[in-house]
Sequence to fold (310 residues):
Amino acid sequence: MLNNEYDIQNASCASEAFLTFYGPISQELISEIAQLVRKHLKNKGVSQTTISKVFSLLIEQSQNIFHYSAERIENTEHKNSTIQIGMISVGMKDNRYYVEGGNLIENAFISKLEKKLTYVKSLSKEALKLLYKKQRKSAIYDSSKGAGLGIIEVARKSSRPLEFNFNKIDDQYSFFLIKSEI
Amino acid sequence: MNNLCIPATKYTPEIDFDYHNNTLLLSGQSYPENTAVFYQPIINWIKDYIDQIGDQETVFNISIIYFNSSSSKVFMDILDLLDNKAKEGGAFIINWSYAEDDEIILEHGEEFKEDLEHLTFNIFTKEC
Fold:
């Protein structure tokens, strides 16, 4: 669904990207990409704490796509299931590592997500910690999609405020991008 | 009651719950495709275990490299079960270990510890 006006180079600052992927995001693929990035950073002598943060942002953002992308294809291996399509990019800009995720979203869901992201973005590190712990203790568990902690976790692992936007494609869909920096 | 052993995969941890020796181990990485599906049998085992052990001491070794946010929720649920049992008189020792240079896993351990009241929660470094 990425079109000419909004191509993958724009989406991912590809010039600084170590890795950019756009396509079907499976669990297997997430795992491969995450291991590759971990190895790459280790070889570059990056600290374990930074590696852990990049790894965490990569997994949370990939699994978000995996759970929520509105662009999907049929999974030929499992009946009645789909594989979600999305974009994930890892790289370095201005001496900071970043992880960027993007996927198609139905316009109808934008306001709810935007509200949550804006709220999370407004919180201090200490407030994020309290929210995370409160939600972890009390959240009603949604068996298919995790515990609603993903966005909070992404904000906690980022050193800078989250950047996100919704790029309208047509009356039904937009392309959602979220970028976290360490 | 049987022991519960599940080998590690790339994204799920090794589980080695030994009913006879009262030792539990969770080790490796945890970011399953479907967290509920993977952890349901583990939670069920823990519930059965709590019902049967009386006041014997249990050691739970957690040696995790990475876990995602939905696993974090499940860990809290499991630790809450043990904490509630400890309140009623069971004895649980959690040994949370982290690689020396990994502040992230250290912090996660501290945050679990802050939210638990009745069990013993040790945090220590391990050799890389």
User: Anything to note?
Assistant: Strands of chain B lie at 4-6, 14-18, 23-30, 57-67, 91-99, 120-126. The interface with chain A takes residues 10-11, 31-37, 66, 68-70, 72-73, 76-77, 80, 99, 101-105, 111, 114-115 of chain B (CB under 8 Å). Chain B has a mean pLDDT of 94.
